[in-house]
Amino acid sequence: MSRELGKKLHYAQIALAIIGLLSSLYLSYSAAFNVQVACPTTGVINCANVLSSQYAKIFGVPNGYLGVLFFIAVLGLIYLKKQEPLALLNAVGAGFVAYFLYAEYLIGSICIYCTLVHICTICLLAISVYELRGATGT
Questions:
Q1: What is the 3-state secondary structure (H, E, C) of the chain?
Q2: Tell me, what's the pLDDT at 84?
Q3: How many domains does the chain have?
Q4: Contact 7/14 with Cβ under 8 angstroms?
Q5: Cα separation of 95 and 125, whole Å?
Q6: pLDDT at 136 over 80
Q7: Of 5, 53, 122, 123, which is least packed with CB atoms within 10 Å of its CB?
Q8: Which domain covers residue 42, as residue numbers?
Q9: Which phi-psi region, left, alpha or beta, contains residue 137 (left: φ > 0; alpha: ψ -120 to 50)?
Q10: How many angstroms separate the Cα of 59 from the Cα of each of 47, 66, 88, 103?
């Protein structure tokens, strides 16, 4: 992998983690202060349905809080340039994304802020895998 591409991917990871963190912070604010997020409330895109469902918390912890912790950890590992732990964390995040997508399917609604987090997480995993493959030459 060229040095220039590596630099671009590094900045892309930072941008994705910050976007995911901001979305997670907004969802956390909504959960902490019981405030509705700015989102349509009819049709398939319905954040209120998703955020008030039984799937909005894991072990009583709002998913937004978990997202904040996840993206802070991701940013820390990016800063420390720890590629293997970052890839592992991103893979765990992608597992949660799969669970949350299934939950949204069961609910019959999609939260746009959650979807933004999902996209950031999957893109972070893709970059991590690409960087690991480049580092090993495979």
A1: CCHHHHHHHHHHHHHHHHHHHHHHHHHHHHHHHCCCCCCCCCCCECHHHHHCCHHHEECCEEHHHHHHHHHHHHHHHHHHCCHHHHHHHHHHHHHHHHHHHHHHHHHCCECHHHHHHHHHHHHHHHHHHHHHHHHHCC
A2: 95
A3: 1
A4: no
A5: 11
A6: no
A7: 5
A8: 3-136
A9: left
A10: 20, 11, 22, 15
pLDDT of residue 41: 83
Hey, CA dihedral for 99, 56, 72, 119, is it positive or negative?
Answer: positive
Is the pLDDT at 43 greater than 80, yes or no? Answer: yes
Q: Which of 61, 73, 56, 69 is nearest to 113 (CA)?
A: 56
Which CATH number covers residue 72?
A: 1.20.1440.130
Token readout for 29 is: 């604010």
Q: Please indicate whether residue 5 or residue 92 has the higher confidence score (pLDDT).
A: 92
Q: What is the pLDDT of residue 2?
A: 80
Distance CA 124, CA 91 (A): 9
**Residue 61, beta-bridge partner list:** 58
Tokens standing for 105?
């399917």
